[in-house]
Amino acid sequence: MIEYRNEGAVRVIVLAAPERLNALDAAMQSELLAALETAGADPACRAIVLTGRGRAFCAGQNLADRDPRRLTAPPDLQASVAQGYNPLIRALRESPVPIVCALNGVAAGAGVGLALSCDIILAAEGARFLLAFSRIGLGPDSGVSWYLTRALGELRAKALMLNGAALDAAEAQAAGLVAAVHPAQALEAAGLAQACALADGPSLALALTRRAIHAAATNDLNAQLDLEAELQGQAGRSPDYAEGVLAFLEKRPACFAARGD
Ligand code: T3D
How far does the centroid of ligand 1 lie from the alpha carbon of residue 33, in Å? Predict the structure, then answer.
């Protein structure tokens, strides 16, 4: 249900249950978590593409596993979210390498959280974010309320989530959630090109940049200034920084080292 392949230094991870629009069950959650952890631990991997097989990115929780006609008691959704979804959101957010989401189609429910936890989202023209939770009697999970409130503001986030509404690719781009929108047939190549560009970049500096941006959501300016100084200290000691400055002075493109070198 999760497939992956290497494209040079890029690990392409594919949600591959197209017959149910890549809706997630416990096994698929575990496989995805393992794929993310394996990629992050592999020094040869310098960027990840996350995408879906077929016409959807991910339709959220597999509702066939929540069929009240087959369950003898209500499912423990607190446990499902805490043990199934939250580790995935944290793994995406805390990945040591940048993650490009190639949003090939609809993302619904927790699928929205997966996409919004990536670092750069490129969307196919027909893709959309469907805030499906309230349609089935649930509130948000997988970080969706956190991401959307910050990105859109409280009132717009409420209007979308209370109505179980959707944001199409163009609206998501206008709102700053999606970096670019591509024709469906061009999305895979665009996602790969973006990830390859990140993979060629200075891995440590990109990781520090993501850390600073994530911390900015909750830090005040003084705390952020201190953090930036600390992170710049780390970057300044890296071989990539020496190479970047040397390349500038020698008027040539920089050639950054592999991760961990
Ligand atoms: O439970 C917990 O652990 C708590 C955590 C919850 C997090 C969540 O993600 S809650 C939100 C769950 N997701 C949804 O409510 C979305 C459900 N899906 C839809 O609303 C629609 O499928 C879409 C709007 C995404 C797409 O609609 P459409 O008309 O393009 O496709 P379709 O015909 O509805 O779906 C195609 C097939 O995929 C269909 O199967 P079939 O009839 O061809 O055999 C459909 O049942 C299946 N499918 C789509 N979404 C799910 C699904 N199967 C299981 N679970 C799904 N989420």
Answer: 21
